[in-house]
Design a protein that fits this description.
The protein starts with a helix and ends with a helix. By secondary structure, the chain is an all-alpha fold. Helix 1 packs across helix 2. The longest helix has 24 residues. The protein has a domain of about 40 residues. The protein has three helices and no strands.
Length: about 60
């Protein structure tokens, strides 16, 4: 993997990250309030699942 691919991936991440706050900041605030009230174990599980799916997608993308 070269630096251009890493920079492009990070740029795409920032685009997706910014979509919700740009499209609906009020909804984002409500979601963040709900996240704050979640137990830490639930957030940890969500993070683990997200990492697992991300790694699987990266693995599949590199196989093509």
């Amino acid at each position: 993997m070269d630096w251009n691919t890493l920079i492009a991936a990070f740029g795409l991440y920032l685009v997706f990250e910014g979509l919700m706050s740009f499209a609906s900041p009020v909804a984002l605030k409500q979601i963040l309030k709900q996240i704050i009230e979640m137990p830490s174990a639930t957030l940890r599980l969500i993070g683990a699942v997200s990492i697992s799916i991300g790694l699987l997608l990266l693995y599949l993308a590199r196989q093509v």
